[in-house]
Amino acid sequence: MASPPPKQTMKERILETADKLFYLQGIRAIGVDTIAAEIGISKRTLYNHFPSKDALIEAYLQHRFVQPRPSDKPPAEQILATFDSLERRFSAKDFRGCPFVNAVAELGPEDEDRTFRNIAIAFKESRRVWFRDLLQQLGVADAEGLATQLTLLVDGSIAQDLVRDDPAMARAAREAARVLLANAGVKVAGSADKKRSG
């Protein structure tokens, strides 16, 4: 018999609530009063765990900063699977774009010490390096340049989906990534017309 999941600490409850509200409604739109009320705690209790809204925003962005899961799939499949994952994410009703881009767009002028921008840069760079490392495994000559291009395809497809509300933008980006990989000498299976489940 499986043991019940561990009970959340108050800090975890605050962060989970902030994560949901910040992502779905916007960081500027949500104050600490709203977060505290949603949980049913006082602002003082919230501030005992996060001394300021900025500290909570920073924790929210760090919480969203997750690394891709290790995979035994061939590198080219891992790269293309990124776009399949995006398509699934775009189809979700709660998809509101990249939380890091959203944070920089909302808070840029207020982020005087660049705390939030630096977290966003670190996240975007970690994704680019992940692409680069896979491309190096494939023996791509300009792995750095192609990794940057793939990162642009990811971000571009997110922007297009937000504007158009069309998960097919991820499929278009996947096909562009497949072409870029093939042009770099990587053997890739099929094209966009190949039927894929999902």
UniProtKB/TrEMBL annotation:
InterPro entries: Homeodomain-like_sf, HTH_TetR, Tet_transcr_reg_TetR-rel_C_sf
Domain HTH tetR-type: start-end pairs: 8-68
PROSITE patterns: HTH_TETR_2
DNA-binding region: 31-50
Origin: domain of life: Bacteria
UniProt cross-references to Pfam families, sorted A to Z: TetR_N
One example GO MF annotation: DNA binding
Keywords: DNA-binding, Transcription, Transcription regulation
Protein name (Swiss-Prot/TrEMBL): TetR/AcrR family transcriptional regulator
